Amino acid sequence: MVGCGDVSAGVPLGPYLLLRRLAKGGMAEIFLARKEGPEGFARELVVKRILPHLSEDPELMAMFREEARLVARLSHPNVVHVYDFGEVGGTAYLVMELVRGVDLRALTLRAREHALKARRWGAIPSHHAAKILSFVCEGLAHAHALEDARGRPLGLVHRDVTPSNVLLSFEGAVKVADFGIAKLQRGRKEITRVGMVRGKYAYLSPEQARGEPLDRRSDLYNVGVLLFEALTGDTVFPHDDSISARHLAAGGVIPNPERLEMLPPGLREITRRALSARREDRYPDALALRADLERFLRAVPEPSDTVELGRYVQRLFPDVIAEDRRGARAAGTVPLTSVAVGGIAPPVLAGTAPLTSAGDGGDRTDEQAVAFEPNETPAEGVVDEFPDLRDEAPTLIAGRYLGASSAVAAVPRPLAGAPPSRPTPGGLPSPTVMETQRLPATPSTPAPAQAHRWWPALLLLIGGAALGVMLWMGGLRLGDEAPPEAPVLPSEPLATPPLAPPAPRPSFVRVRTEPIGLVVRVDGEERGVAPLRARVDPGVRLLSASRDGRVLVESTVDVPAGEDLEVVLRAEAPEEARLRVVSEPSGALVHVGGERFGRTPLDVALEPGEHEVSLTLDGHLAHEASVAVSPGGLSTLSVRLAPLPQKRVVSRVVPRRGSGTLSMATTPWCEVWLGSRKLGTTPFANVTLPAGTHQLSLRAPGRPARAHRVVIRDGEETRVRLAL
Length: 724
Known about the structure:
Blueprint: E1 11-13, E2 16-24, E3 28-36, E4 42-50, H1 58-71, E5 82-88, E6 91-97, E7 101-103, H2 104-117, H3 126-144, E8 166-169, E9 174-176, E10 185-186, E11 189-190, H4 206-209, H5 216-232, H6 242-250, H7 265-274, H8 286-299, H9 306-316, H10 318-326, H11 382-385, H12 393-397, E12 407-414, E13 432-439, H13 455-473, E14 507-514, E15 519-522, E16 525-529, E17 532-536, E18 539-547, E19 550-559, E20 564-570, E21 577-584, E22 589-592, E23 595-599, E24 602-606, E25 609-616, E26 623-629, E27 634-640, E28 659-667, E29 671-674, E30 677-681, E31 684-690, E32 692-700, E33 703-712, E34 717-723
Parallel strand pairs: 14-20, 21-27, 28-34
Antiparallel strand pairs: 1-2, 2-3, 3-4, 4-6, 5-6, 7-8, 8-9, 10-11, 12-13, 14-17, 15-16, 15-18, 18-19, 21-24, 22-23, 22-25, 25-26, 28-31, 29-30, 29-32, 32-33
Helix pairs in contact: 2-5, 3-5, 3-8, 5-7, 7-8
């Protein structure tokens, strides 16, 4: 087996040669590798290998193999590509493409520091931030639309769309990484257990924090978080308090939501919709979110594409590029250091702390840097986890990856009006109050000039003493009266005034609700989303929990004076509402709220309320309707689908002769059908069709089918390019 230390000499692993370990985490480690072939062929890759001592765990090995089978099906320019999977000596490994660049977390940090130096607010410019997240949406849309061999949707959800899992190459390519904890969901059977919360606590969607089943809209919530952080350099949820972060997310609460008003007008509504607490209020799919981002980009004068993003990354990271030329490093494994900002304090927005390089919620894990498991703190183990970075460890540890640009220490200063400090019998100075001061960047930095400004006070003291001696020697008096006698100090200490009676202790109620995230009111006054701790007056109080303005449970409690009373409000599960959808002809595809449910005839269980329903069927016009379903009731939607209009046939029919080819490209992608024949997924080229006029059907998940007519001429190629 390959050891975990330095492998710079090259150690074989199957057909690959491991050159250097880049990072190590709780379950796996990654290496820079090379595959060599005949005639001097060589290619640098990244190998992710499960730790040898975990290879004997059958459950972990099964998870690793499942990850390999899953990610091998992903093939998109905005997704990190997986080339191979193998096992050597009982140890499994994945082989992935090498992305030479940085991750979105490092880019946001560096952009924020450059903005501070220029005395500007924010981090990544809005046009670049929107383009990066647009590329992320393209990669997610590909993963969400993944199907099995029979054409059935897999229901893939990434579940961990965080800044460390968005990689940017030095050429500007944007790639989504780490589908290792993604969930497959088909019907009611799920590969991972419902209720198991994975991912980073500061990046959980509300339904993910509550442990509920997830769909693709959970990933879109994370895109909203990333867009906010990329624009502002601020965090949405606290990174240093995982419990608070999860409780806030579970209740759908954005701390200090007024911060959204600071975003550029074109991106404000996009971010707000992506961060909606109810998944029904978010974008139905990643392509819909991407469409709004692209609409914003078309309205701004600054260009942003792969080339411009590459220039932006290169301009911000000349040091990382120079390091990469000396030895390739995968994006996300480059150590983070801060740029000195000349003593300018970062503008802390009201709410959470600014984004720092401490990691995504305190744990850093990505496809190319399987660095840390959840609840593991990177700073304490950085030297052991990254042996190649030992020379940089002092900079990394000081300030939690922020570099040694400054440090904070507490130094004593005298109490206001107190005499100078003097030794006490115990050898300690007289009482002082602690004052926080910022120390120099390094021990070798000379003390500031302010430390030597005691000499004016000394000159005043010497001058006053000399004047006193002159007055005494000349017998001078400042008045006719004799100087007052020195006061006689009392032999007993002065009596201290009696202390005021202590204020009564306040009363509190700690409220938890089942299910979590209900809105709590005390005597009709809204106090927030459970779980919470509210200060109340002692006595009998009326507590209630509600959702969407409807009270689900009420309870009267007697709050003792000066105590914390814990209350649990359990709401009965709401009655299930059902919708039956039938169509003529049958077999129409049904979408409810943008989510695919199946084909007619169909019975589905929904939350009570109003839902948007759409039906699509080949050769027929799409039908959309708004249907209201009540608790415990059954609503029926019966639709007769109208066939697509046919053009009248002219009296003189020209028989089709020969054949031609069709090449087609659309933005975004779609499937192209001719009747029951699937021609391919755009873009495609040189598909042979009989000469004549053909009616094509353009289909894509989450959108109604669209008809398009093409004319194929004998022996010619017909090219079609459409913007959907």
